[in-house]
Amino acid sequence: RPPPSPSRCASGRSEVAIQSLPSVPTRIWDHGETVADKVTLRAVLADPSARRPLLAAAGLAVGNTAIMVQPLQNYTTDIMVRAGASDPFFCALLAGLARLAGVCVCVLLVDRVGRRPLLLAGAAGIAGCYLLMALAYARNEPSLLAAGLIALFFCWAGSWAGLVWTVSAELLPDSLRASGMGAILIVFWTLNFAACQEVERVMQALTPQGAMAAFAILSVGAFAYVATCVAETQPEGEAQGGAEQLRGISLHHRRDGHSHGTDSHSGSDSEWDTHVGRGEGAGPTAAKQSGGGAAHRR
């Protein structure tokens, strides 16, 4: 027999609503038994099976720093001024718009293409942009340098800038996600602070074109790391499974109603199918209309 309709539970009959809770399809009860289980970072590091996702996520944070785009965006105007660009501030504006466009592209493609392909494409694009900038420095072409810098920010914003945190959170198990992400953020911002302090010295020591070539090599290393150590984390199966579960719940209650010959409860059956199976008419008004329609049919 299906549980009471939403309109009946919402009509002030708290006893009926409480009694119907165990029959409502939900995963809250199973989840509640494991909420109290706590896992510390020390215990995770001692367990090889739990240590792998944490190290994989930490590697993404290190790779996001190693590609050096985050530190370089703080020096966009200075780079264009030193390169002799005619309008460095306009180039900085275009770089900001490129970052915005990259984020929009990432939002559109992340669930269609997947996380891992976007990270790989982003690392490859970043490496290519660095090589283009190295060539621009070698030939002393400010316009080519500006194009490479703008494309660099677009590739980074469309992949590594946001996906690193998405993939890291999806790699970590539920019991470790909060503390693990905290540790990864500490690692990233510590390395990023050091990189921001040293980026100018690196460009002076290696020459600008040499530094861009070195950054391209680091980007290739980030590409290799994702290709070999990071798996796809897109929860596509979970979304499909949830939809199938809802359809199965609705079908189950319909079959129960017909198999037990519950013609006297056809209004409740209709209301429950409407609420769970189609997600429509969840409010009391729609439920009453559904019940009234069933009563009229009787």
From TrEMBL:
Q: Which GO terms describe its cellular component?
A: membrane
The segment annotated Disordered runs over 253-298
Its annotated compartments are:
Membrane
- State where it is primarily located: membrane
Q: Which residues cross the membrane?
A: 89-110, 116-137, 144-163, 175-194, 206-227
**Which keywords annotate this record?**
Membrane, Transmembrane, Transmembrane helix, Transport
One of its Pfam families is: Sugar_tr
Q: How does it sit in the membrane?
A: Multi-pass membrane protein
Q: Locations of Basic and acidic residues compositional bias? A: 258-278
According to the entry, every stretch annotated as the Major facilitator superfamily (MFS) profile domain falls at: 1-234
Select a single GO molecular function from the record's annotations and give it: transmembrane transporter activity
Annotated Gene3D superfamilies: MFS general substrate transporter like domains
Quote the protein name from its UniProt record. Answer: Major facilitator superfamily (MFS) profile domain-containing protein
